[in-house]
């Protein structure tokens, strides 16, 4: 992707990866992604902020070549390789460039990449860097997405370069995001930021103290309406949940499917939004996305080899690892001759601070008395949602 001007002497010089479909060999990214890198030309010094995935180094180097600049400083906001992987190539070409980062990020970079220690200049929270007519300020914002993350603030232009923070996986030639980025940004938050919700809230408070006109993340388009994405993050990271029940499930021979269908109808009749997610067809990112707002999760599974279906195990493990703000969990499903499915599922959600709604495990195909019990489960969920004041 050719470089683009954001403001006077501020350029986007990163690349778009139209073809990438999976990240960390885990996260499906059907809309591709980008690795954004930014160049700031001050009257005295020129800075490159973050690099790109090593598979795309040549495109970044081409852009810098076209802009005909020397790089005095290379600022690294985050050590993960999709942003740091081209650092050795940049240092090879711009031999006098100094790598500016925080101490945690330096430690990680030195583990991952061949960078001489003398190339580094370590900054602390609130440190500044003068480029002549422009000034940068470094704000340490850990856990967006690793413990090393920081953001860089360009004071004169009121731009924050936020790396993964506020990012989205979407390949687009649009420089600035429209409101339609919401779903991509929320899914991105769900997949990599959600476990660090409490710390992210503190980072948002820190950003509230500075005037921001543009947010330039390192994935997806730039925000020239920063309030839109900051407000979304405040909502996602708040303790408030919505009147929603997420139901990740598998059915092998139809019993669990009947139970889920009945539960969905029973919840709808009680004015609760139900989100059944058949794990055979659902990208795990959709499960993560659904967990951002849900108050209740009902995990539904048949019994396979005495335990839950492996796809349900995966979804349950993921939900536990993402530590969403769920308030209630229940389990439903069926078995043929026995098993310990309920114990195994409940044993897998130890990090979730939830209360249990009475589970329902039945033998074989659901019968009238089982449907009645599903109605009772829906009543219990409705009663809890009412107590929270969300119905
Ligand atoms: Fe886009 Fe955590 O790297």
Structure description:
- With 391 residues, the protein is α/β, with parallel strands linked by helices.
- It folds into two domains: 234 residues, Metallo-beta-lactamase, Chain A; 141 residues, Rossmann fold.
- Helix content is 33%, strand content 25%.
- The strands form five sheets. A seven-stranded mixed sheet has the order 1-2-7-8-9-10-11.
- Strand 7 and strand 8 form a beta hairpin.
- Helix 6 packs antiparallel against helix 7 and helix 8 crosses helix 12.
- The longest helix is centred in the C-terminal third of the chain and has 20 residues.
- It binds MU-OXO-diiron.
Listed once per kind, the bound small molecules are: MU-OXO-diiron
> CATH superfamily name of the largest domain?
Ribonuclease Z/Hydroxyacylglutathione hydrolase-like
Classified by CATH, the class of the largest domain is Alpha Beta
Summarize model confidence as the mean pLDDT.
97
| Rg estimate, integer Å | 24 Å
**Helical coverage, percent range:** 25-40%
Strand order of the largest sheet: 1-2-7-8-9-10-11
CATH architectural name of the largest domain: 4-Layer Sandwich
Question: Termini separation (Å)?
Answer: 48 Å
Count of DSSP-assigned helices: 12
Key traits:
Metallo-beta-lactamase, Chain A; 391 residues; Rossmann fold; 12 helices; seven-stranded mixed sheet; alpha/beta; 2 domains
Helix and strand arrangement:
Elements: E1 4-7, E2 10-12, E3 15-17, E4 22-23, E5 27-28, E6 33-35, E7 38-41, E8 46-49, H1 57-67, E9 73-75, H2 81-84, H3 87-93, E10 98-101, H4 103-112, E11 120-122, E12 128-130, E13 135-140, E14 150-154, E15 159-163, H5 182-193, H6 197-208, E16 214-217, H7 226-237, E17 242-249, H8 255-269, E18 273-278, H9 284-291, E19 294-304, E20 307-308, H10 310-322, E21 328-335, H11 341-346, E22 355-356, E23 360-363, H12 368-387
Parallel strand pairs: 8-9, 9-10, 10-11, 15-16, 17-18, 17-19, 19-21, 21-22, 21-23
Antiparallel strand pairs: 1-2, 2-7, 3-6, 4-5, 7-8, 12-13, 13-14, 14-15, 19-20
The structure holds MU-OXO-diiron.
MU-OXO-diiron binds at residues 78, 80, 82-83, 145-146, 164, 218-219.
């Amino acid at each position: 992707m050719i470089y683009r001007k954001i403001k006077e002497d501020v350029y986007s010089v990163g690349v778009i990866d139209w073809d990438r479909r999976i990240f960390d060999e885990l996260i499906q990214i059907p809309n591709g992604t980008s690795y954004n890198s930014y160049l700031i030309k001050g009257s005295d010094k020129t800075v490159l902020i973050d690099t790109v995935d090593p598979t795309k180094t040549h495109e970044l180097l081409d852009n810098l070549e076209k802009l005909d600049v020397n790089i005095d400083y290379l600022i690294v906001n985050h050590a993960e390789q999709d942003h740091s992987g081209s650092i050795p190539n940049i240092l090879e070409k711009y031999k006098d460039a100094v790598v500016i980062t925080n101490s945690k990020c330096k430690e990680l970079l030195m583990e991952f990449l061949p960078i001489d220690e003398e190339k580094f200049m370590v900054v602390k929270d609130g440190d500044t860097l003068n480029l002549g007519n422009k000034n940068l300020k470094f704000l340490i914002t850990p856990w967006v997405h690793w413990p090393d993350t920081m953001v860089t603030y360009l004071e004169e232009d009121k731009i924050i370069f936020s790396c993964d923070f506020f990012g989205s996986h979407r390949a687009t030639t649009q420089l600035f995001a429209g409101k339609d980025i919401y779903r991509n940004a929320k899914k991105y938050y769900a997949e990599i930021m959600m476990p660090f919700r409490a710390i992210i809230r503190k980072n948002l408070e820190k950003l509230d103290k500075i005037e921001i006109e543009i947010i330039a993340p390192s994935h997806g388009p730039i925000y020239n309406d920063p309030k839109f994405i900051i407000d979304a993050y405040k909502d996602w990271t708040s303790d408030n949940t919505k009147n929603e029940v997420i139901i990740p499930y598998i059915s092998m021979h139809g019993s669990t499917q009947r139970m889920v269908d009945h539960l969905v109808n029973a919840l709808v009749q009680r004015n609760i939004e139900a989100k059944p997610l058949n794990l055979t067809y659902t990208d795990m990112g959709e499960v993560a996305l659904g967990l951002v707002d849900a108050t209740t999760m009902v995990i539904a599974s048949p019994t396979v080899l005495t335990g839950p279906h492996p796809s349900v195990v995966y979804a349950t493990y993921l939900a536990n690892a993402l530590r969403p703000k769920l308030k209630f969990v229940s389990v439903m499903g069926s078995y043929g001759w026995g098993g310990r499915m309920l114990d195994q599922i409940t044993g897998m959600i130890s990090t979730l601070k939830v209360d249990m709604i009475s589970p329902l495990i039945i033998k074989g195909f659901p019968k009238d008395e089982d449907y009645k019990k599903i109605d009772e489960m829906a009543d219990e969920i409705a009663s809890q949602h009412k107590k929270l004041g969300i119905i």
